TrEMBL record:
One of its GO terms (cellular component) is plasma membrane. It is an enzyme of class 3 (hydrolase). SMART domains: AAA. Keywords: ATP-binding, Hydrolase, Lipoprotein, Nucleotide-binding, Transport. GO terms for molecular function: ATP binding; ATP hydrolysis activity; transmembrane transporter activity. The keyword Nucleotide-binding applies. This is Lipoprotein-releasing system ATP-binding protein LolD. PROSITE patterns: ABC_TRANSPORTER_1, ABC_TRANSPORTER_2. Pfam families: ABC_tran. Residues 4-224 form the ABC transporter domain. It comes from Adhaeretor mobilis.
């Protein structure tokens, strides 16, 4: 089945007394072309949920399926390949490699499973053109503005054409007008490529741009207006 299906996810951490329950019962489903914002108080588990949806972390229990694949059933090697193929990540900080050029940074997701080929380079170049950085291929991240670095991060997240995009405060380090431009670009890219997009954010203006908003509080996720 296509789409993202998360059902009854729980996440708790052991402590010396009672386990610390972060996610009690979280369900979320999403289809290609849909986007959703996850909002909620600080410490409510938004980043934890995003990490579980992206298989960077494991739930304590629950069901997860992305385009028919159950990542919870995969071994470590399969999981690395699954993440590289199925999930594009955008973080608050761009996590670009400072010693690599813009183009090399965008090619990095290929290196998870193989070396990049000529077709990959073309894909990366055309994405960099799409995000407005065609003239900056050989620049290093330090030579770019914060907004430009986040454009590179968007191109990197999309370069393997994953069905699922996950973004954790993608505009959190940017001034308002740059944040608005990056949010618009993220949503344009998601819409034109019919990706599934989950964005964790404290920003009301970013959440307001999304098709759906879900509030995470006390370990439970609820759709809000
Ligand atoms: N490895 C861990 N062991 C124990 N507790 C953890 C661990 N990782 C996260 N937590 C706790 O889980 C809770 C949720 O953290 P998380 O970062 O997911 O929240 P958040 O909603 O994204 O917060 P913020 O909005 O401030 O970024 C926090 O109380 C945090 O301390």
């Amino acid at each position: 089945m296509s789409g993202l299906i998360a059902e009854h996810l729980k996440k708790s951490y052991p402590t010396s007394s009672e386990p610390l329950e972060i996610l009690r019962d979280v369900s979320l489903s999403l289809e290609a072309g849909q986007n959703v914002a996850i909002v909620g108080p600080s410490g409510s588990g938004k980043s934890t949920l995003l990490a579980i949806l992206g298989s960077l972390d494991l739930p304590t229990s629950g069901i997860l399926q992305v385009d028919g694949v159950d990542p919870l059933s995969l071994n470590e090697k399969e999981l690395a390949a699954y993440r590289a193929d199925q999930v594009g990540f955008v973080f608050q900080e761009h996590h670009l490699l400072p010693q690599c050029t813009v183009l090399e940074n965008v090619l990095i997701p290929f290196l998870a499973t193989r070396t990049a080929n000529a077709q990959d380079v073309e894909t990366a170049k055309s994405l960099l053109e799409r995000v407005g950085l065609a003239e900056r291929l050989t620049h290093r991240p330090a030579e770019l503005s914060g907004g430009e670095r986040q454009r590179v991060a968007l191109a990197r997240a999309l370069v393997r054409d994953p069905p699922l995009l996950l973004a954790d405060e993608p505009t959190g380090s940017l001034d308002q007008s740059t944040a608005d431009a990056i949010a618009e670009l993220l949503l344009e890219l998601q819409g034109e490529r019919q990706k599934m997009l989950v964005v964790v954010t404290h920003s009301q203006s970013l959440a307001a741009k999304m098709q759906r908003r879900c509030q995470l509080d006390l370990g439970v996720l609820e759709e809000v207006a």
